[in-house]
Specification:
Low-confidence stretches: 1-13
Number of helices: 14
Number of domains: 1
Strand content: under 5%
Number of strands: 0
Bound molecules: manganese (II) ion
């Protein structure tokens, strides 16, 4: 069964998908990168420390505990690009190719790497296995922060194909039902946003996750200092995304909460970019981004969408 995508808009009218899709897809990839670069400055700080040091943090200025250059990104963007390259090369998600791509990325001595990611890549290197054993403690946000290339290459695939691709890439490092549920919901939300669905539909998807897994309820206390635990990460992202109207306000809200701010920034930036499109990303943020990273995100977006377009024949016409 195919879910109909690309229908529905805030006005209820048809959504012109082609050019629009590309703008939204570019918005998602650059949104991910600017969110990562913006949030890296406040990663592991508390909201109080951020206020003291920056007032309201709203400039891509580098620094942070990783001492980044302004516009430099971290593992969130780099692992997405590594995943995306392997999808383009193999014309789809191939777990072995994904694991090799991550392993190669690790060999380049990245500026930052999560512990679960490191464990997963070492597991692949020593066993050749492309999935870690199921483990409830693998419920970090590391597979969620990097899934965007799957959304772009599979946005028009069946739900089954989309979820299968998601699990293959996730389980290379993270294998927990709770993390899968969060990652798959975010993936569905990004795909829905790419195809022009309205915010009420996205909210229903987030509430659906909270109904199936009550840990994800996000309508209570404001989440400050969201940790790398995917539940806390997504609660902060949902709160920021659904309580602010502009791309900029969403990102400023989420990265000023501190905690795993580069990753909440990356995930919120990808979702908000997919929803609002490229044109609403502040020009100063786009310009601040490392130019090589910006170009890599742009060209990969086009390549992944081209791959999806070749699947067109399998999609019922809307
Ligand atoms: Mn990071
Ligand atoms: Mn992080």
């Amino acid at each position: 069964m195919f879910r109909s995508r690309g229908v529905g808009s805030p006005s209820g009218g048809p959504v012109p998908l082609k050019g629009d899709l590309q703008q939204r897809a570019l918005g998602a990839y650059l949104g991910l990168a600017v969110g990562d670069a913006l949030g890296a400055t406040t990663e592991f700080m508390t909201p109080g420390e951020i206020r003291e040091r920056h007032g309201v943090h709203r400039k891509i200025s580098g620094g942070g505990w990783l001492r980044l250059k302004p516009g430099q990104v971290t593992d969130d963007t780099e692992m997405s690009l590594a995943l995306g390259r392997s999808i383009v090369e193999r014309r789809g998600v191939d777990a072995g190719a994904v694991a090799s791509a991550f392993s190669e990325w690790m060999r380049g001595q990245p500026v930052d790497m999560g512990n679960t990611v490191r464990r997963g890549i070492l597991h692949f290197r020593t066993t050749g296995q492309t999935a870690v054993p199921e483990n409830e403690y693998d419920a970090g946000n590391g597979a969620c922060m990097r899934f965007l290339p799957v959304a772009l290459a599979y946005w028009n695939a069946s739900d089954e194909e989309l979820m299968r691709a998601s699990r293959l890439q996730s389980h290379v490092t993270h294998n927990s039902p709770l993390a899968d549920a969060g990652t798959e919901t975010l993936l569905s939300m990004v795909v829905a946003a790419l195809t022009g669905r309205d915010k009420a539909s996205l909210l229903a998807m987030a509430h659906g996750l909270a109904e199936r897994h009550p840990a994800y309820r996000f309508d209570r206390r404001r989440v400050e200092n969201p940790s790398g635990y995917i539940v806390h990460t997504l609660q902060a992202v949902f709160q920021a995304f659904f309580s602010n109207d502009s791309f900029e306000a969403i990102l400023v809200d989420v990265v000023n909460r501190g905690g795993d701010a580069d990753t909440t920034g990356a995930i919120a930036g990808m979702l908000a970019g997919a929803f609002h499109g490229l044109s609403v990303i502040p020009a100063s943020w786009r310009k601040a981004l490392n130019p090589q990273v910006r170009k890599a995100c742009e060209s990969q977006t086009i390549e992944l969408l081209a791959l999806a377009a070749e699947r067109d024949w399998a999609i019922p016409r809307i």
